[in-house]
Amino acid sequence: MKVYLIKDVERVGLAGEILNVAEGYGANFLLPRKLAIQVTSANENFYKGRIKTIEHRQEVIATATSMQAEKIKSIELTIKRKMHDGDKLFGSVSAAEIAEMLAAQGIKVSKNQIDFGKSIKTKGSYEVTVKLSSKLQPTFKLTVKAE
User: N or C: which end of the chain has fewer CB within 10 A?
Assistant: First the structure.
């Protein structure tokens, strides 16, 4: 089944692409959730024309995202927390806290885009990754210090 994706679908494709998907997947998942529209021979040319418009829009978004990635790479954040037994934190540093700190620096990201592997429970320096897109994943340095 040929479909035109209206929205980005993880591990399938980006909005504006024409893809061949399995009949059942298209009919039972993509179409009912309004993630895609079925492409027929009658409307195929219309959607091929829309692809060019969407490609241009994606280029503009990619440029803005790459500028944001450069900002993130140059940032170094420091967080001060209460500790016990020398270097152990009370609790841990959350992705939401990091997202708020980035927002204070003028970088808007959601907590779901922040990845730091294992939880941060001790003082020290950590590499934090921000997933802006599947290809752009800049990292920055987060330092945890005692209050």
Answer: C
Contacts 24+ apart (CB under 8 A), 69-75: 69/130, 69/132, 69/136, 69/138, 70/138, 71/105, 71/106, 71/107, 72/102, 72/107, 72/130, 72/132, 72/138, 72/139, 72/140, 73/138, 73/139, 73/140, 74/140, 75/102, 75/105, 75/107, 75/140, 75/141
pLDDT score recorded for residue 49:
76
Residue with tokens 């504006």: 16
Q: Structural domain boundaries of the chain? A: 2-65, 75-146
**Can you name the CATH fold of 2-65?**
Ribosomal Protein L9; domain 1 (3.40.5)
Q: What is the pLDDT of residues 33-51, one digit of tens each?
A: 999 999 988 888 888 777 7
Strands 114-115 and 88-93: unpaired
Closest by alpha carbon to 110, among 121, 120, 128, 98?
Answer: 98
Q: Which pLDDT does position 134 carry in this prediction?
A: 75
